[in-house]
Design brief:
259 residues, binds adenosine-5'-triphosphate, ATP-binding cassette domain-containing protein, single chain, six-stranded mixed sheet, ATP hydrolysis activity, membrane, alpha/beta, Rossmann fold, ABC_transporter-like_ATP-bd
């Protein structure tokens, strides 16, 4: 379970270019829930993910993971409890190493074991099993160098590597944004397969409204550093892309009228 309580972050405080990134933001994500975060540019989505991961130090407010207050916990310690996949498919993997070697690296990172026993048959079998969750056939390409994989395969590999340590929380930071639409859909399907199989509590930021409609239990719309709208249950099941986009335009009209 993730809780963000009254998170506030102001950049360049007191200066002409002061920016309120998080404005008393509150959010609660239940264990096993998949939340999809949307919002216009500058709404505070990245700041929120950074505050959860510890990359951003809050001015005030709290972040709790499964009831533990991690607000003061440094990034490297929080990294054991959460996994994050970024936009760039080149970032999460080592290009010149094979799929199996990348899995081993991730394994060692999350388990703090030594490299000594290397790629033994037990490990290879478990990597095959985990990779098969993605449904992309990567389990048959353990000896392929990662640089030979497609962007979608590589991003999906990053995902399965990130969640190897059974994290309490998975953060997907626009992880399909750098991919062409078809590849983005393939990666989303692989993501859903892995998230469901591993029962991961997940928070995904996306600008892809179709993905926000199609996936996840709840849509969370951020605006000006706080949650402005949440859509779940039957309402979420019935929502369309134009409906979601409509929420953006209502907000823009209001902003326009207020200014
Ligand atoms: N390191 C920083 N220094 C100064 N201002 C920042 C910094 N990071 C974020 N901001 C400001 O905080 C606000 C929220 O930014 P943030 O990047 O969290 O929004 P976002 O919703 O992720 O936007 P996008 O969709 O464009 O990625 C913006 O006004 C942004 O300019």
């Amino acid at each position: 379970m993730l809780e963000i309580r009254s998170a506030r972050k102001v950049f360049y405080k007191g200066q002409a270019d002061e920016k309120t990134a998080l404005n008393d933001l509150n959010l609660r994500l239940e264990t096993g829930e998949f939340g999809v975060v949307i919002g216009s540019n500058g709404a505070g989505k990245s700041s929120m993910l950074n505050a959860i991961s510890g990359a951003l130090v809050l001015d005030t407010g709290k972040v709790l993971i499964n009831g533990d207050d991690v607000t003061a916990m440094p990034v490297h310690k929080r990294a054991i409890r959460l996994a994050r996949v970024f936009q760039d498919p080149m970032k999460g993997t080592a290009a010149s190493m094979t799929v199996a070697e990348n899995m081993l690296l991730a394994d060692l990172r999350s388990n703090r074991r030594t490299l000594r026993r290397g790629l033994n048959p037990v490990r290879l079998a478990s990597y095959k099993e985990r990779l098969s969750l993605l449904g992309l056939g990567l389990e048959n390409r353990l000896d392929t160098r990662v640089e030979l994989l497609s962007g979608g395969q590589r991003q999906s590999l990053s995902l399965i590597m990130a969640v190897g340590g059974s994290p309490e929380l998975l953060l997907l930071d626009e992880h399909t944004a750098a991919l062409d639409p078809r590849t983005a859909d393939i990666v989303m399907q692989a993501t859903i397969r892995a998230v469901e199989a591993l029962k991961l509590t997940t928070l995904m930021v996306t600008h892809n409204m179709q993905h926000a409609v199609d996936f996840g239990h709840r849509v969370i719309m951020l605006d000006a550093g706080r949650v402005r709208l949440e859509i779940a249950g039957r309402e979420k099941a019935a929502i369309t892309v134009p409906d979601l986009i409509g929420h953006f335009s209502v907000k823009t009209d209001r902003m326009f009228l207020a200014s």
